[in-house]
Amino acid sequence: MRYSRGAMAFHWLIAALIILNIVGAVATEDMEGPVRGLAMGMHKAAGMTVLVLSVLRLGWRLGHRPPPLPAAIGRMTALAAHGVHALFYLLMFALPISGWLMISAASPRRPFNWFGLFDLPYLPVEGDKALQVVAHDAHELLFYLILALLVLHVAGALRHHFAHGRTFLFRMMPGQRRTGI
């Protein structure tokens, strides 16, 4: 069985934004001045978009059960798959929230808007240097965790597809008609 169109849309939109933010975070390390400010503005806006889409995705997920995993994969693999998905949900919330806390606790605050279209709200923690440091460290740790999880997720999907001949990839691919077993 395949995932619903809504689940696929959330999956690929959030995945694209997370990958964009991973690449952007690495790229901004060597940037300075206005270019860095522009890149960080895009990073913040994409992160907040991930947070909003994750809230919507969780709501969607609560009302739309995913297709069952085929019995052929075994109990341990199914547990690992469920664990990876649970960690992804946790990180899709924790990573943007830690970034939001970090920029909200800064003093002076830097611009915080959604792709230049409208201002985004700060959390009421301005000037809390200790919180800013903790949020920064958490954001960095969560970055490495989501990067590792992304690699694990993609490697697992490719392993099932190529090493075991299972067509799991088609369950989440738009426009495909394969069953995904």
TrEMBL record:
Cofactors (names): heme b
Keyword terms, alphabetized: Cell membrane, Electron transport, Heme, Iron, Membrane, Metal-binding, Transmembrane, Transmembrane helix, Transport
Membrane topology reported for the UniProt record: Multi-pass membrane protein
Compartmental location: Cell membrane
Domain Cytochrome b561 bacterial/Ni-hydrogenase positions: 2-175
Membrane spanning stretches: 41-60, 80-103, 141-162
GO cellular-component term (any): plasma membrane
Short name of one Pfam family: Ni_hydr_CYTB
The keyword Ubl conjugation is annotated on this UniProt entry: no
Gene3D superfamilies registered for this protein in UniProt: Transmembrane di-heme cytochromes, Chain C
Family designation: Belongs to the cytochrome b561 family.
Protein name per UniProt: Cytochrome b
Organism annotation: Sphingomonas changnyeongensis
